[in-house]
Structure formats: C-alpha cells, structure tokens
Design a protein that fits this description.
Number of helices: 5
CATH class: Alpha Beta
CATH topology: Transcription Regulator spoIIAA
Number of strands: 5
Order of helices and strands: EEHEHHEHEH
Distance between the termini: 26 Å
Strand content: 25-35%
Shape: globular
Helix content: 40-55%
Largest sheet: 5 strands, mixed
Radius of gyration: 14 Å
Oligomer: single chain
Length: about 130
Amino acid sequence: MGSLQVSTDAWPVVKICVEAEQTDSGVEAFIKDMERVLDRQEKYIALVHANGFTPKMDHIKQLASWQTKTAGRMKELCGGFALVIQSEILRFSFSSFLLLAPLPFPYVITKSQEEAEEWLENAAKEIDIKI
C-alpha cells in the first residue's frame, strides 16, 4: 500500500489516508486515484487523515500543480474537505501547502475526528448529498 491511500468504499465520502514519507510513485498513484474520483462526475465530500507523513517540496509542487489544473472540476464536485491532523507541525505544513494551491471548495483542518465528521455532515447537506 502507498503512503497516500484513497478509498471510495463509503461513497459519497472519499476517505484519504496520508502516512509516512511519500514516494514519487505514491504521489502519482494518488493523483490517478483522485482523477478516477473526479471522472465519476458525482458530488462527494472527503475525509482526510494525515499522520506522521514527511512532505517533500517536489511532491507539494506536483500536487499543487494538479490541484490547480483540476480546480474547476473539484469546485463543481467536492462539497468539502475535512483534514484530521493530530500534529500541530503537520497542520502547519498542510496550511502552507494550501497557501501554494488554495482549495476551490470549503475545508476544515482539525485534530478531532468528531469535529471533522460533524463539519462534513453540514457540508454534505449544503450540496444535498446523504452520507
């Protein structure tokens, strides 16, 4: 398994798990997985767990570039993104990434799973999907 895992098993909730140090192939696989999510052309929300990963600047730039290219589709389809990050340092890292490539949809960064789930429930209601 890669360090960036995408699951659509709980659709319309896309679950993303970010662990360990990313590899070039792991980032490419993540982008392909997310392209498949967007290719469904269905509204979704995302729950992201990020634990103990080490971001590399090349990967941040690659993800930021992809995010910029897909911003229109993401804005149309993604009702919200809740990032659960325990570490203050990692929350800062994600916030820094979002400065490079702001998300085109609502999001929250929290250390609480419960807060993330509550926020996503409200986001789902905003775009009229049931989770």
